[in-house]
Amino acid sequence: MNVSLNEVEATAKRATRGAGYQWGLAEEAAKAVRWLCANDIDGCGALAGLIERFDGVDLAERVPLPDDTGWYGKGSVLCPLIAGAALSDCALDLADRDIRMGPVAAPCLLFPFAAHAARQLRNTVTVSWPAGAAVTDGDRISLTGPIGTRVDFITVCRGGLLGAPNRQMSRAMPEQGVWETLNRFAHRTYAPATAESRLLGAGAGLTDTD
User: Fold this and answer.
1) Total domain count for the chain?
2) Residue 197, domain member (yes or no)
3) Backbone angles phi, psi at 149, to 5 degrees
4) Which of 52, 72, 81, 197 is the most buried (most CB within 10 A)?
5) Alpha-carbon distance 150 to 131, whole Å?
6) How many CA atoms lie less than 13 Å away from 20 in the CB half-sphere?
7) How many CA atoms lie less than 13 Å away from 164 in the CB half-sphere?
8) Rounded Cα gap, residues 119 and 74, in angstroms
9) Residue 195: inside a domain, yes or no?
């Protein structure tokens, strides 16, 4: 498929809300997916996999809890959207310390939040995991090594050398099945039609004014 970034953002927002996230976090997720797609990373696929994985799960169990070693979740895996929002809130802390968290599902969804931190710090930010790393200056990102659908831990730190950045994209190309998954969750946000709403949307309805 070939869709505009505006379509990606709108669909991602409704899909995230349909998956049970609050509207504010759904808006952040939509911006994150758009940023990934604009940087030639499959944000749509990452979000679709995440909301399918956490469908019906108590999201409160995926909130990061800090201890002396980093952030961990009450559940088995952290949500990158919730952890990413927390990262944005304490981005300036990266000036003094690294942030380690894990395990994390759909870890590439953390990249846009790291980019936000880079803009706040006016510096690059590096996100590293056992098999690779990503460096962002806020607008662009360079990747080394593969990143899958789950990593045991991630470290976020200030600084890092931005290598050859991913190409910039003006449109996204999600797989058909991924786009269908996002729309399936998005449809949960639509109010079911009622007799009154059908009449209001049907022109003259039962009243002939001619």
Assistant:
1) 1
2) no
3) -90, 0
4) 81
5) 12
6) 14
7) 2
8) 30
9) no
Contact predicate 41/166, CB 8 Å:
yes
Residue 114 CB neighbour total at 10 angstroms: 26
Q: Judge whether 201 lies within some domain.
A: no
Mean pLDDT of the chain: 91
Prior bond to 130 cis, omega within 30?
no
Q: Quick check: 120 and 183 in contact, CB under 8 A?
A: no
Residue 156, both tokens: 């976020």
Q: Tell me, what's the pLDDT at 208?
A: 45
pLDDT tens profile 105-126: 999 999 999 999 999 999 999 9
Task: Give me the domain span that covers residue 143.
Answer: 3-187
- Rounded-to-integer distance, Cα 124 and Cα 158, Å: 6
Residue 86 lies in a domain: yes
